[in-house]
Amino acid sequence: MAEQSQYAELVRQVSAVGVVKRGLSRMLPAECPAGPAAVLHLLDRHGEMQLIRLAELLAIDTSVTSRHVSHVAERGWIERSTDPCDRRSRILRLTPAGKELLDRLAEHCTDALARALDDWSDDDVGQLNAMLARLRGSFSGPGPGPRHPEVTRTPA
Amino acid sequence: MAEQSQYAELVRQVSAVGVVKRGLSRMLPAECPAGPAAVLHLLDRHGEMQLIRLAELLAIDTSVTSRHVSHVAERGWIERSTDPCDRRSRILRLTPAGKELLDRLAEHCTDALARALDDWSDDDVGQLNAMLARLRGSFSGPGPGPRHPEVTRTPA
DNA sequence: TATTGTTATACTCTATAACTATA
DNA sequence: TATAGTTATAGAGTATAACAATA
Fold first, then answer.
1. Are B151 and A101 contacting, i.e. CB atoms less than 8 angstroms apart?
2. Percent of chain B, pLDDT > 90?
3. Domain count of chain B?
4. B90: domain CATH number?
5. Could you read off the pLDDT of B86-100 as tens digits, one per residue?
6. Which spans in A26-95 are helix H?
7. How far apart are CA B5 and CA A141, in angstroms?
């Protein structure tokens, strides 16, 4: 159990991760922004899957996932085939073109990250990855609690 | 210097921090979303300052900062007084009402975080904070490199 | 009736660019 | 001319709700 000042600092640090995200986004081509890129990455890493599972891995709503998926499907980077076992669902699979794009992005991002993080050891990055994964786990668990209650509002 | 697989994982982890950010946002009242809340927090922590300095601390554009500041100023949580030394700039200062709101938010968030992170030690949180700060530093430095170049685009 | 996926709508956060007022 | 701040516009990302098709 940590102290309150640590929590406040954590909230600030998490908010400020936005700068890093935007930095990473700028490495991506306009045609394939961060959301769609994450779709390609997960399909490559975990293999073909249904949309609902993809949404779980992305930790976002299925409606949003559906749009990202449409984006990459329209460009031929993935294909959607109807599941013969359950014709409601569609199987999402990376195409060779998608794999090519992904490899190109990975290479490009690696170069840029290697420059930005040249003083980070492999172990440093591994530790940060582990802590972020743990943080996410702590938040997806029983839920972070209810929405903030009543606020004494100053009239607009 | 870390390996490529670690970088790829880092990109995913950073993207996925969004879940945590949204979890934190849900703790906030509708009247004071995350952006404005960060303004209050920084003014409390660093004392009165100009908008341009606030934008630096938030690591966002001054135009965006200006809107967040207007949001909290309209609700009486901060006051903007013209700097007598330089009448172009305005001094931003937390009001007692703003301080009250902030304390209420801090208490509420601390409770929720204490529940979500009950198995994190003070040291764990401190380490994560330090690594996130370092990560941000690595990205604000000489710049993460140029935008992604040409993409062999599949016709839409 | 429940589930998979899609679409419509709205909100937050952000950047770029054009503008005002002051230095 | 340059700087502090504001506003207009646009884009990415998200959630909620309503909907279609299938189970």
1. yes
2. 71
3. 1
4. 1.10.10.10
5. 999 999 999 999 999
6. 34-46, 51-58, 62-74
7. 27
